[in-house]
Amino acid sequence: MKLLITTFMLGLTIGAAHAANPMVEIQTSQGNIVVELYPKKAPKTVENFLHYVNTGFYEGTVFHRVIKDFVVQGGAFDKSLDWRKPDEPPIPNEAKNGLTNEPGTIAMAHDRDPNSATSQFFFNLESNKHLNHYRDDPGYYGQCVFGKIVKGMDVAKKIADFQTGAGGPFKADVPTEAVVIEKVALLPAAAEPQPKKSKMKGKSNGKTKNEPRRNLAGT
Predict the structure, then answer these.
(1) Distance CA 195, CA 73 (A)
(2) Can you tell me the distance from the alpha carbon of 43 to that of 49, in angstroms, rounded to the nearest whole number?
């Protein structure tokens, strides 16, 4: 009996800890995506992301860079791609938090300075180990993972299937049909979907100017 009670209480504790993770719903013109955020692993990154969410910053922006079997990236430009929303000061890179760029994870985009991420984020469509932290070197610091898709991975893959080309200041990888982020909102606890369990592992490197690299850095 004591063992049953202990097991039950342990289950409640794990469930409560799991439910503490905030959930955010990203409503796009192609469907909705729900992500679970990991504030214990990436506190500054999650705080930064939620600030943009709560101020309505992402509404009306687009996914301006999509590459099939790699990433779907957005969080800065409007549909015309001629105007980039003014963002907040950059945040420290928390890529050393043990989370890796596995399929379905959400991570921050930054330029050649590892500590230059602001509002842009991306979804990993495959296991992008070359984007993980490898060492404390600007070229190998990696992209900080701070959450994971728990609903709508099919939407992310659908977006990645869009035909792309040049657009605005970009020479390639811009969807020829704008994929708009219509609304992003923090979900109340009662509305949170049950996230799927996943294992994250691996260690490597990667990044470029607000664009995670396709290939292994240094090669």
Answers:
(1) 22
(2) 10
Q: Which helix (H) or strand (E) holds 71?
A: strand 71-74
Q: What is the DSSP letter of 79?
A: T
Q: What's the mean pLDDT when you consider all of the chain? A: 85
**Token output for 85:** 């929303």
pLDDT digits over 46-69, tens only?
A: 999 999 999 999 999 999 999 999
How large is the average pLDDT for residues 142-150? Answer: 98
Going by C-beta distance under 8 Å and a sequence separation of 6 or more, which residues neighbour residue 146?
37, 38, 41, 42, 45, 46, 49, 94, 99, 106, 107, 108
| Full DSSP string of 18-69 | HHTS-EEEEEETTEEEEEEE-TTTSHHHHHHHHHHHHTTTTTT-B--EEETT
Q: What amino acid is encoded at 200 in this protein? A: M
Domains contained in the chain, CATH given: 37-188 (2.40.100.10)
- In 75-215, the DSSP E strands lie at 105-108, 121-124, 145-151, 164-167, 170-175, 181-186
CA distance 106 to 52: 15
